[in-house]
Amino acid sequence: MKILIIGLGTFGKSLFEELKKDGTSEMVIVDKDENLIEMNKEGTSYAIAGDSMNIETLQKLPTDIDVAVCCIGSDMSASLITCLNLKELQMNRIIARSSSSYHSQILRAIGIDKDDIIFPEEEVGVRLGKRLLHRHVFNNIILAGNHVLSEIKVKNQFIGMKLKDLHLRERFKINVVAIKYREKEISEDGENIYIEKILDVPDPDYVFTSDTTLVVVGEESAIERFKEEL
Fold first, then answer.
1. CA angle 142, 147, 148 (to 5 degrees)
2. DSSP notation for 56-117
3. Any idea what the Cα angle at residue 93 is, between residues 126 and 68, rounded to 5°?
4. Model pTM greater than 0.85?
């Protein structure tokens, strides 16, 4: 997949670094700051310093880009004009960063799909809120569509119960794919130490302890319902 990133601010640079680290996508970058382009061009197939509000800048890019991500957030005019230019160039898919509901409304009006408009600050705030409200939830990893993988620590009221007692498939349509727990061992020095272990084929008769963490997969809405009860 060939991905175009426009704007190497904090958000754009983070996205670029993550995709580059993965190494499965071909990267193209655009920013009007020549220094930023010079510092980040390594590992890209194409890097250009120029103003994305000028369609001639974008016309210099490869024509086989699969996804264009407009990471411009603070300058709404620059964001909107850039997206209009990308639409005019008939880019396959455009993902745009938004800074406000008003910004999003205009992005939708010019043809950006609602699901392709992102609010980085709002999404971070929502995730932090969930972490504070659900302190027993450690990680959420988006898999595909609405499905996520989540690590959830078992609450005290479930200690002593068996995995099969929760009836997760029947009640929530989610699956437990692994169980993490800590086991006490004696070190070479004779001290008690706790080693984290994992059951990658969970036993329905497994009895929950205070150190049990469930690794579950399912639709995000189903896992959210499970979290509320757990």
1. 45
2. HHHHTS-S--SEEEE---S-HHHHHHHHHHHHHTT-S-EEEE-SSHHHHHHHHHTT--GGGE
3. 80
4. no
**CA–CA separation, 184 vs 195, rounded Å?**
6
Average pLDDT over residues 146-153: 82
Asked if 103 and 78 touch (Cβ cutoff 8 Å), the reply is no
Residue reference for tokens 């757990």: 230
Order of strands across the sheet that contains 117-118: 46-49, 26-31, 2-6, 67-70, 94-97, 117-118
C-alpha span between 25 and 59 (Å, rounded): 21
Cα torsion 81, 84, 88, 92: sign? positive
Adjacent-strand bridge partners of 140: 150
Please tell me the distance from the alpha carbon of residue 173 to that of residue 219, in angstroms, as a whole number: 8
The domain limits of the chain are 2-120, 134-229
Per-residue confidence (pLDDT) for residue 108, from 0 to 100: 94
Q: Which CATH class is domain 2-120?
A: alpha beta
CATH of range 134-229; options 3.30.470.20, 3.40.50.2300, 3.30.1330.30, 3.30.70.1450: 3.30.70.1450
Smallest CA-to-CA distance from 169 within 216, 135, 208 is with: 216
Query: pLDDT by residue (tens digit) across 56-68?
Result: 999 999 989 999 9
pLDDT value at position 80? 96
If phi > 0 it is left, if psi is from -120 to 50 it is alpha, else beta; for residue 145 that is left
Q: Pick from 145, 202, 155: which is nearest to 176 by CA? A: 202
